[in-house]
Amino acid sequence: MEAVKFLDAKGLACPMPIVRVKKVINEMESGQILEVHATDKGSKSDLTAWTKSGGHELLKIDEENGVFKFWIKKA
């Protein structure tokens, strides 16, 4: 999966991962993919809900060594 932007949100607590994701997504074009890495356990449910409410598509979630990796396609 080829992301056009990458956001490192590791070490950030709620609500900062979503705040940062929103800022980056707003700079992207429709259909582009953002890859996000976060360590906040709440980011999994938060980003899932946020992408759905914003009409974006959560393509994939992975977890590796305590890091959650998200691929979000902008609506």
TrEMBL record:
Residues in UPF0033 domain copies: 7-31
Entries under PROSITE patterns matching the protein: UPF0033 (PS01148)
SUPFAM superfamilies: SirA-like (SSF64307)
CDD domains with a match to the protein in the record: SirA_YedF_YeeD
Highest taxon of the lineage: Bacteria
Entry-linked Gene3D superfamilies: TusA-like domain (3.30.110.40)
Matches recorded under Pfam families: TusA
InterPro entries linked: TusA-like, TusA-like_sf
Family, similarity comment: Belongs to the sulfur carrier protein TusA family.
PANTHER family, per the entry: SULFUR CARRIER PROTEIN YEDF-RELATED
Protein name listed in UniProt: UPF0033 protein YrkI
Organism: Siminovitchia terrae (Bacillus terrae)
Record gene name: yrkI
